[in-house]
Prior knowledge:
The structure holds 2 protein chains of 2 kinds. By secondary structure, chain A is mainly beta. Helices cover 0% and strands 41% of the residues of chain A. Chain A has 2 domains: 2-64, CATH 2.40.50.100; 77-188, CATH 2.40.50.140. Chain A has a 5-stranded mixed beta barrel. In chain A, strand 8 and strand 9 (89-97) form a beta hairpin. Chain A is elongated, with a radius of gyration of 22 Å. Chain B is α+β, with helices and mostly antiparallel strands. Chain B has 4 helices and 16 strands. Chain B has helices at residues 166-173, 179-187, 207-219, 225-239, and strands spanning 16-17, 22-25, 35-36, 40-43, 46-49, 53-58, 62-66, 79-87, 91-95, 102-105, 125-132, 140-142, 154-155, 160-163, 190-195, 199-204. In chain B, strand 8 and strand 9 form a beta hairpin. In chain B, helix 2 runs parallel beside helix 4 (225-239). The radius of gyration of chain B is 21 Å and the shape is flat. The interface between A and B is small, with 11 and 9 residues.
Amino acid sequence: MEGDEEKFVTPGEVLGKATELKAGKGAYVSADDRTVYASLTGFRSLTPPPEGSDDPRPTVEVKGHKAHGPVPEPGLVVIARVTKVMAKMASADIMCVGPKSVREKFTGIIRQQDVRATEIDKVDMHASFRPGDIVRALVLSLGDARAYYLSTAKNELGVVSAESQAGATMIPISWTEMQCPLTGQVEQRKVAKAGA
Amino acid sequence: MESKPSVSPSSFVDQQVFPGDVVLDLSKMTNQTIKLGGGLRQDGDVISVMKAGKLRFSKPNKYWVESSHKRYVPSAGDNVLGIVVDAKADNFLVDIKGPMLAFLPVLAFEGGTRRNIPKFEMGTLLYVRVVKANTGMNPELSCMDASGKAAEYGPLKDGFMFESSTGLSRMLLSTPTCPVLETLGKKLAFEIAVGLNGRVWVNATSPSITVLVANTIMQTESLSPAQQKIKVENLLQRLQ
């Protein structure tokens, strides 16, 4: 099964037998557990088995295509920009996963019950987010076909940066309020606790 | 349009103002709190106008711009006349002549539970209160007042609804009673519901009274109080 060290593969190509190889990232085992196929486009690479494990098979992965940017996974903290605020939820465009920016468009939804941890049925979405705010959120789940489910129900999650109605970047005052430096107007948001 | 060298607040009150006019200079006024209503905006040290209309002032410190439009901008606390467009699982979609359809929650009625949800057909006329109206979000309505009572909100049966401008609606709702309604009310018996979104509903025992009241109101929009009384009396004489 040797060939070039880094063979270019496309989805559906056979990578090897399941008895000889373990399926890593970008690869999967067929339903009858006999063959390992590629599921992404990229370069095939083999990694030897980790020490101390019983499994002697090397792991085959498909990596390297430039469209494989970071992808939101449940449990990761993402940075998103709020696009729409509605009565019971807010839509956001995910821009970064951890420290890296994403290469494709991912949409997230923050539901009313996931905005904060206390008094979740009295949350006013308009007093928590506005369109254009940058928020730090946690990915709860893959959600449905349209969007990931995000949550800001922690002290360090919430609005990181927002513009006031006068157009200036606001300064956070408390966990519920931000103030405009030009007009002094205070606006309500669910503010993230600043700090490393 | 003369330009005044010093901008004192009294110079512009009750005058027609246009977007861009500077009406107040905050650096000249010290230690005062001023409340700005619709149509005004703070630009650093000056207050400038955003909407064309008449600048109004109410003691002690409220300024706002009043204008009359055929379009309605939803704002919380207004009583409006809406038309049901659709019924979804959780709310009715109601048209209130604003930029977006408004949501009327299915439970926002006095004594409303999941079991006795009212069945409104498409086209039903409702007298409702705007609860929340934020930019970008669909306005939220309710058929209850702030304390949870029904208070005249709900569907309006029979009668005739016509649309006009928001200025006319405000005139009809002003206190003391506007001359048109007062003069009409002395001779005729009718009921009327005025929505701040430019819709007015009139109902009377006979169609001719309804038509007379509706036409009279529509014709008196731009008349002064004295002219209104004269016009109404003329029209009433023709009926007799």
